[in-house]
Amino acid sequence: MDSFTIPQFLFLLKGLQWTIALSLIGLSLGAVAGLLIALARTSGFKTLKRITGGYIMLFQGTPLLMQLFVTYYGLALIGLKLDPWASVAIGFTLHASAFLGEIWRGSIEAVPRGQTEAANALGVNYLTRMRKIVLPQALRISLPATIGFLVQLIKGTSLAAIVGFNELARSGSIVSNQNFKPLLVYAVVALLYFSMCWPLSLYGSRLERRLATGAR
């Protein structure tokens, strides 16, 4: 029976790097798609609102685990065979875009309507109005919820192990099978997750309190 060695701990840190990379990719690509969804949801075009509303219902109403199964195994059935890295990146991007799109839709609608009406009265076009007036305020409003979702996304990366992606949770499972010390290994894995999520949660709570104070 092997002890918990430094090479095994370094192996966990390598899994941690992949967890961070997957979280950032899902967040960044999901942010781009989520912004487009939010703009479509607030555009006033009924067709766009219905399509994006159905998209959000689909990805918010189904488990992330199932979505990862579909992007890996389902796409392979139609001849699109992806490696685990590409499939989980697509899965997390789609998942994040649905949640961020709804978060940012609410933030856009939370911007006082009078500012939009004033911009329209001054002849400010849609793109300029959104870029210089609405979106900067909506981004500030959405930050606590966006950070909270990032925390959930980081923890959700553990599900990527189901398709063979070697992130932190799967690395912990591999090390545990080597040294037969699951309590010790998973305690270290839990501490690594905690070291990522707890500071983000504190920062999100601080931002939320600051926004609440500024709104009084």
Give the total of domains: 1
Mean pLDDT: 90
Can you tell me the residue ranges where pLDDT is under 50 for at least 5 consecutive residues?
A: none
Shape call: flat
Helix/strand/pairing category: mainly alpha
Largest sheet: none
Task: Describe what this molecule looks like in 3D.
Helix 2 crosses helix 4 (84-110). This protein has helices spanning 6-41, 46-60, 64-77, 84-110, 113-121, 126-156, 168-179, 182-214. The protein has a single domain, classed as MetI-like fold. The protein is built from eight helices and no strands. The protein is an all-alpha fold.
Outline the fold blueprint:
Layout: H1 6-41, H2 46-60, H3 64-77, H4 84-110, H5 113-121, H6 126-156, H7 168-179, H8 182-214
Helix pairs in contact: 1-2, 1-4, 1-7, 2-4, 3-4, 4-6, 5-6, 6-8, 7-8
Tags for this entry?
MetI-like fold; 216 residues
Question: Quick summary of this structure?
Answer:
By secondary structure, the protein is mostly helical.
